[in-house]
Amino acid sequence: MLKTQPLSYRLYAPDNYPAAPVSSPLVLDSPHSGTTYPPDFAPAIDFGALRTAEDTWIDDLWSGALEIGVPMVAASFPRAYIDANRAADEIDALLLDAPWDGPLNETGKVKLGKGLIWRMLDDGTPLYNRKLSLAEVHHRIDACWKPYHQAVGQLLDAAHQRFGKVWHINCHSMPSVAGAYATDKPALVHPDFVLGDRDGSTSAPEFRQFVAAWLREKGYNVTENDPYKGVELVRAFGNPVAGRHSLQIEVNRKLYMDEVTLRPHEGYARLQADLRGLSEALVAWMRGQVA
User: Fold this and answer.
1) Per-residue pLDDT tens digits for 209-249
2) What is the pLDDT of residues 52-86, one digit of tens each?
3) Which residues contact 227 (CB under 8 A, 6 or more apart)?
4) More confident site: 7 or 194
5) What is the predicted pLDDT for the residue at 277?
6) I need a labelling partner for 78 at 20 to 30 A (CA). Which of 72, 137, 275, 287 fits?
7) Record's Gene3D superfamilies (predicted)?
8) Is the pTM for the entire model greater than 0.85?
9) pLDDT, tens digit, for every residue of 107-157?
10) If you compute the radius of gyration of the chain from its CA atoms, what whole number of angstroms results?
11) What pLDDT, on the 0 to 100 scale, is given for residue 5?
């Protein structure tokens, strides 16, 4: 099902895509699963520390959905290099060696050092001992961010064209305890899952409610739009009035891996099976919505 593997992303879609329409009204994307570190990155910290920024294993945990025909776009580039779940204008001016040559959007994430290009890790460790040139930033946007967003948009458009509606899950992981510079709620102990649709602005509530009820039935602790409401990808692609429903799902890493070694533990197989079961239930529910 791996259709193509550009430098910026991996596309999992049916072999006949895009010549023929996609077979599922559900589309996944995993923007922080990339582990290919470009040679021009030149950070000031070691590889092990950089890997703490990844949504390690998330694309694989959702792989059961791919087996039932659900397409996915997964980033190849690492989140610490450029964050596909930020807007292109969320530029951190403190990182640059010259004034930015476009609009600046100083969001809360930028103020935390977590803009389009991160200035620090969740614990406050600086990523660089140098300033970045404007050319470096533009290269990362053109080579990684733009192709990734284009690929996600094309999959969503293809599903919408076939079914008249499309449901999009933006797949993420979160540490068991929020880092000092990760969010505006440092040291918060996270639940098993957090579902975010930006307070209902990126999806009809039934999507979020279906997922929450299914997971709770399996015994998981689930919160909705707290502490994570969803960021750029659901904002960019969610438009419920037009039949485009986007939901961010954060999975607690303690459920499936050792947060120090990043190796899967005994809970991995159960979570992977449950995410496949959720995907199967969602596709069946969605087909009833478009019949």
Assistant:
1) 999 999 999 999 999 999 999 999 999 999 999 999 999 99
2) 999 999 999 999 999 999 999 999 999 999 999 99
3) 178, 183, 185, 188, 190, 194
4) 194
5) 98
6) 275
7) Zn-dependent exopeptidases
8) yes
9) 999 999 999 999 999 899 999 999 999 999 999 999 999 999 999 999 999
10) 18
11) 64
Structural domain boundaries of the chain?
2-288
Tell me how crowded residue 78 is: count the other CB atoms within 10 A of its CB.
21
Q: Are the C-beta atoms of residues 36 and 82 closer than 8 Å to each other?
A: no
Cα separation, 97 vs 90, in Å, equals 16
The dihedral built from the CA positions of residue 134, 135, 138 and 144, taken in this order, carries a sign that is: negative
**Contact, 79 vs 35, CB < 8 A?**
no
Name the packing angle between helices 268-290 and 205-217 (round to 10°): 140
Which structure tokens are listed for 218?
A: 């399996």
Cα distance between residue 267 and residue 276, in whole Å: 15
CATH fit for domain 2-288, picks 3.10.20.310, 3.40.50.2300, 3.30.505.50, 3.40.630.40:
3.40.630.40
Give the residue among 96, 23, 48, 88 at the shortest CA–CA distance from 236. Answer: 88
Exposed e or buried b per residue across 141-153, where buried means at least 16 C-beta atoms within 10 angstroms of its C-beta? bebbbebbbebbe
Eight-class DSSP state of 189:
B
Q: Which amino acid is at 130?
A: R
As to burial, measured by CB atoms within 10 angstroms (0-12 exposed, 13-18 middle, 19+ buried), residue 156 is buried
Indicate the SS3 state at residue 213.
helix
